[in-house]
């Protein structure tokens, strides 16, 4: 089977996947979602963001594995997909329990503050 892209094309694809993915995961995930989770705000957005990143990462890994095993694509094709996909899935999947805990802690703080106000 013909390669999906050339070796120079793999560099471009890797830069796009890694650059965009790293910017989105790092910038939005850390810079926006972290403080929102600590404050207990925008739970749906934050959890949706990390679940989406996990699913996109898993899809990249699956695509890369299929390209390697079943479609006999060269290393410069499947590695560009599996490496960032594994990173995205591992990072976002690993952070989901910590983010859930942040929201639970924020809810507990809100309940404790409300109880103190009541007397």
Question: Can you describe what's shown?
Answer:
The structure is a single chain. This protein has one domain (7-118). It contains 3 helices and no strands. Helices cover 87% and strands 0% of the residues. It starts with 6 loop residues before the first helix and ends with a helix. Helix 1 (7-39) runs antiparallel to helix 2. By secondary structure, it is an all-alpha fold. It has helices at residues 7-39, 43-69, 75-118.
Residue-averaged pLDDT: 90
Q: Using the CA coordinates, give the radius of gyration.
A: 19 Å
Low-confidence spans: none
Overall geometric form: elongated
Distance N to C terminus: 73 Å
Count of beta strands: 0
Please indicate the percent range of residues in DSSP E strands (runs of 2 or more): under 5%
Q: Name the structural class.
A: mainly alpha
Number of helices: 3
């Amino acid at each position: 089977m013909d390669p999906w892209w050339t070796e120079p094309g793999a560099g471009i694809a890797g830069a796009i996947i890694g650059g965009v993915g790293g910017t989105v995961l790092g910038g939005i995930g850390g810079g926006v979602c972290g403080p929102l989770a600590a404050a207990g705000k925008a739970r749906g957005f934050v959890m949706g963001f990390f679940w989406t990143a996990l699913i996109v990462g898993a899809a990249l890994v699956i695509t890369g594995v299929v390209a390697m095993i079943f479609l006999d694509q060269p290393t410069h094709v499947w590695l560009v997909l599996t490496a960032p996909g594994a990173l995205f899935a591992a990072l976002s999947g690993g952070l989901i329990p910590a983010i859930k805990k942040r929201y639970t802690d924020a809810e507990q703080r809100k309940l404790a503050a409300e109880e103190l106000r009541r007397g």
